[in-house]
Design a protein that fits this description.
The chain has 116 residues and is mainly β. It contains no helices and 11 strands.
Length: 116
């Protein structure tokens, strides 16, 4: 069974930092691209960061560029999202997503709340 488990969410004041983790099991982790998505109250979610399985290259949404950093440790089957300079508009449930060759897996999310 494939599992993705996010952790590290919580409540932080604006300007603060959090580091999210996504621990994976049941898949060949190193072969999967990993993305972080978030969904705030409202109809749409947002893809915010992506790290490649091929070369570790990273991509960010403009809304988080320069503040968030995605990284991966294939030995630990874990992806991280370091979030700095948090803003109230970063408040959302954050999900990790592993995808490769048509396979697509999601975690259940972790809530981040940024107070002003």
């Amino acid at each position: 069974e494939v599992r993705l488990v996010e952790s590290g969410g919580g409540t932080v004041q604006a300007g603060g930092s959090l580091r999210l983790s996504c621990a994976a099991s049941g898949l060949s982790f190193a072969e999967y691209d990993i993305g972080w998505f978030r969904r705030a109250p409202g109809p749409e979610g947002e893809g915010i960061a992506l790290i490649s399985s091929v070369d570790g290259s990273t991509h960010y949404a403009n809304s988080v560029k320069g503040r968030f950093t995605i990284s991966r440790d294939n030995a630990k089957n874990t992806v991280y999202l370091q979030m700095n300079s948090l803003k109230p508009e970063d408040t959302a449930v954050y999900y990790c997503n592993a995808f490769s060759n048509g396979m697509d897996y999601w975690g259940k999310g972790t809530l981040v709340t940024v107070s002003s």
